[in-house]
Amino acid sequence: MLEPQSRSIDLPGVELSADLRLPARTQALVIFVHGSGSGRTSPRNQYVADFLARRGLGSLLFDLLTESEQRMDNLTGELRFDIPLLARRLIQVIDWAGRDPGLRALRIGLFGASTGAAPAAATLRGGCPWWNSGASHMNQALPKKRWDRLGLVSILDTINGLSA
Asked: What distance, in Å, lies between the first and last C-alpha atoms of the chain?
């Protein structure tokens, strides 16, 4: 098992906590976009990140909300569905990875789970590996044929392609 490195992602006006796994000679980084009720430390996300690391893929698990925002959201639920805010944060994290000397050469894929699939989908401009981890409400709202038209591919297909 590859131990994650704790990272701090400095964005305009906010600092987000993150866990980074970079296997030796990795060529790709999967950025996790979790849904409400989940986060970078959830056992499911950690399991998937370990699974990807064993197959040579890097991963970045980060919290979309700061600790104080998360506390407020736990009480009000107002931020978990603020897709413009969450999509903007995701775009800023992708840009951050593109500036980081250790990450900028890596191909980027997105792993969107539950309501995290919405900001992931909102940021995509086509051609980026994508996987919505079984959030049926997202699959119903945005059918697979739409993803196909945008040129998006399953991250599992990408894993298979990298290991072939």
From this structure: 22
Q: Is 135 helix (H, G, I), strand (E, B) or coil?
A: coil
Q: Per-residue pLDDT tens for 132-146?
A: 444 443 444 445 555
33, 18 in Cβ contact below 8 A?
Answer: no
Task: Extract long-range pairs of 94-101: CB within 8 Å, 24+ residues apart.
Answer: 94/31, 94/123, 96/9, 96/10, 96/11, 97/29, 97/31, 97/60
> What one-character DSSP code corresponds to residue 116?
G
Provide the token pair at 87. Answer: 């999509």
**DSSP codes, 37-87:** T--TT-HHHHHHHHHHHHTT-EEEEE-SS-HHHHHHHHHH--STT-HHHHH
Model's pTM, two decimal places? Answer: 0.73
Question: Do 79 and 73 touch, CB atoms closer than 8 A?
Answer: yes
Asked whether 135 and 143 are in contact (CB, 8 A), the reply is: no
Residue 136's H or E segment, with its range, is helix 136-141
- Tell me what pLDDT residue 77 has: 81
